[in-house]
Amino acid sequence: MRSKGIGALSIAIAAAGLLYAAAPAFAQQKTITVWFGKGFYKSEDDALLETIKKFEAKTGIKVELSQYAIQDMIPKTVAALDSGTVPDVAYSDSYDVQAQGKWAYEGKLEDLSDILLPMKGAFAPNTLETALLYNDVAKKKAYYGFPLKQQSMHVQIWQDMLEQAGFKQSDIPTKWEDYWSFWCDKVQPAIRKATGQRIYAVGQPMGVESTDSFQSFYTFMDAYNVKLVDDDGKLLVDDPKVRANLISALKDYTDTYVRGCTPPSSTTWKDPDNNVAFHNRTIVMTHNFTISIAAKWLDDANNPALTPEQRAAGKKAYEETIITASFPNKPDGTPIKYRSDVKTGLIFANAKNKAEGKQFVAFLMQEENLRPYVEGALGRWFPVTTASQASPFWQADRHRKAVHAQFTGGTTPFDFTKNWKFTILNNENVWAKAMNRVVSEKVPVDKAVDELIARLKQVAG
């Protein structure tokens, strides 16, 4: 499987005219600018730096790398687009969710089909397809981005806290209503009685500045079989069943707060905050759109800068006391099919060094370069290629096995891949705004849903 992926990529490079084995002398003076989102872990960034070093040695092209925090990438990129001084290659964890579809529609992105089509067979299902977007200037669909990695929804639980409350993992119900009742009505009062501390059973992200809140809410919508758009991106929200199921999803999501089962601060949480609450053990469980929570403790276990005691605590947490689990079955009793969010990098249409930028992308996408970068994130990201998905890395421990099982069980893309205007809605976080209308402003759930539907129609209709 590995050789197939590499072979496909070699064909892609040749087809795009990107062979660089004997770089011409003029190419040695070339410098490309690359912007990349800062990784969570040193091993992730180290793998990227190693690939850049290999690329420079092989091609004679110098890479000027700048890394930025996720929250800074889109503002910096928008400013660069406005000024006409864009990087030659750019990657951000938030491009796909909040901007890529819009930029493709406006003709601001370079078509990368010459790289990606020849290696199409190397990609796993529901990965490459997410970069196939419509350009309203060129009046065509094409691959306006390169898939690097993907993520999905997982549940993280402190096993020792669950046991302290008098329960074990096998006690956790698989039925939807029973599941949430278990955490709020059984675990929370029991853990508070056992510890004498104001611990909350659930960490339910609700902040408007949190992508976790909209990704988690999509899982609740999927539990109620809410389908907001058809395969052509047409809105379906005028269907009374869609409205009714949206009301059920929003009621269940906000009930956790109404019942006092999630910290009051969860209405203003940003992306790191449910992680922090979990690490601080003020919550027993949370849902998160990667296993970055568990991976943080693995990183601690291997961090030479920490004390032996801290490394031992990280090892114990990762190997023994943190559980990576799935959501319960839907209210109708069937399993949830999870959303996958495929993270993509971009080349802009007005980049100065597009040919060399494509060389870099093609090099980065080679199996021996892409795999160390994805695995360097310690399981936080899942591969987009079938060869990397078969890597022994994903069978190395219970957390990664859970991720592998969830992805290989089948996923479905987000609505913004079918209707680019959902990137605007995600950027506004209309989902978290609806939650806050209910829990902070005491608006009835059905009214909050009607407001949400009105905004969906206004933006994406």
UniProtKB/TrEMBL annotation:
Note one Pfam family from the annotation: SBP_bac_8
Give the UniProt family note.
Answer: Belongs to the bacterial solute-binding protein 1 family.
Instruction: Please give the coiled-coil regions recorded for this protein.
Output: none
Gene Ontology, cellular component aspect: periplasmic space
Gene3D superfamilies in alphabetical order: Periplasmic binding protein-like II (3.40.190.10)
Task: List UniProt keywords, sorted A-Z.
Answer: Cell membrane, Lipoprotein, Membrane, Palmitate, Periplasm, Signal
| Main location group | periplasm
Protein name, please? Carbohydrate ABC transporter substrate-binding protein, CUT1 family
Q: Does the record's keyword annotation contain Lipoprotein? A: yes
Q: Which InterPro entries match?
A: Bact_solute-bd_prot1, SBP
Location(s) in or outside the cell: Periplasm
Its signal peptide is 1-27
